[in-house]
Amino acid sequence: MSGRMYYLCEVVSLKLIAIDLDGTLLGRQDQISRKNATAIKRAQALGVEVAIATGRTYREAVDFCRQAGITAHVISSNGALVHSQAGRKLLAVTIDKQTTAHIVSWLEENRYYYEVSAEGAIWSPEYGRQWLEQEIQQFEQSNPLQDLSQLRSEAGKIYRSIKLVDRYQQILEKNDSYYKVYVFAANAMRVKAGYAKFGDSEDLTVVSSMDHNFELMNRAASKGNGLKTLAETLGISVDRAVAIGDSYNDVSMFEAAGFSVAMGNARADIKKNCNMVTDTNENHGVANAVEHLMQLYYG
Predict the structure, then answer these.
(1) Which Pfam families match (predicted)?
(2) How do 180-184 and 204-207 pair as beta strands?
């Protein structure tokens, strides 16, 4: 396989693999390839537990797995929720209504596109789409020579299975607590402004899964903590876990796991801090890494 590889000798028995979705397990068409699915099934046949670890919702993760013909544990909403392979909820870490109202009020004041994940639904104000289109158009007009294909690609991943409301106050009337607030901005300075506003909060953590977004969760929620919870539930030492991902919201599970694998399409600083670099998501990097690790640990 391509990519650089080096190993941690102390990972003597691989028992759990946590795999990110976007930019990792999913290809450009937002599908799990047959090769990736086959590698996951082989690992499971050898007794290795497999978890999907994603910023997306639990339902989205389950749907991707179903389409690929696989089953797995799910760490969703960047670790705010953890479900067993059988669908049992193992962990739920929420943002309270007062904190959510504070976040949403600031986003409204500054005309950000945002989505709020709650039990059973993702809510967004209907006018948010117009705000975002206006922002993208203004950004394109101000940067006529810049390649904005990445921006358009990332923008195309939003608007997924959301429920629209006429006014943002309706979101706060729907639930008493929330899992995550997802925010998208065309201009990188607006992403930085979000970090500046909420990065020092005692109650929140801020991560990014793409160049043009930031995501807000309860400070106790992270993919790393989700992985620890799952490992403990399964009776597995987290040192015997492998984490595979490509972005900054994967760093906490890289740090929690005994072995970390960066995708070939990950940023240089992500690759630098992982134990192994595999191929890109378009070249079935997950399958290549899993097959290599299965050969290494199980022969």
Answers:
(1) Hydrolase_3
(2) unpaired
CA 165 to chain centre: 25
* Residue pLDDT, tens place only, 83-138: 999 999 999 999 999 999 999 999 999 999 999 999 888 999 999 989 988 988 88
Within 8 A by CB and 6+ apart from 257, the residues are 18, 227, 238, 239, 241, 242, 243
Model pLDDT for residues 180-232, shown as the tens digit of each residue: 999 999 888 999 999 999 999 999 999 998 888 999 999 999 999 999 999 99
Annotate the chain with three-state secondary structure: CCCCECCCCCCCCCCEEEECHHHHHECCCCCECHHHHHHHHHHHHCCCEEEEECCCCHHHHHHHHHHHCCCCEEEEHHHCEEECCCCCEEEECCEEHHHHHHHHHHHHHCCCEEEEEECCEEEEECCHHHHHHHHHHHHHHHCCCCCCHHHHHHHCCCCCCCEEECCCHHHHHHCCEECEEEEECCCHHHHHHHHHHHCCCCCEEEECCCCCEEEEEECCCCHHHHHHHHHHHHCCCHHHEEEEECCHHHHHHHHHCCEEEECCCCCHHHHHCCCEECCCHHHCHHHHHHHHHHHHHHC
Look up the CATH number of the domain holding residue 291: 3.40.50.1000
State the catalytic residues.
Answer: 20
- 99 plus 214 within the same structural domain: yes
**Number of separate domains in the chain:** 2
CB 227 within 8 A of CB 50: no
CA pair distance 132, 126, nearest whole angstrom: 11
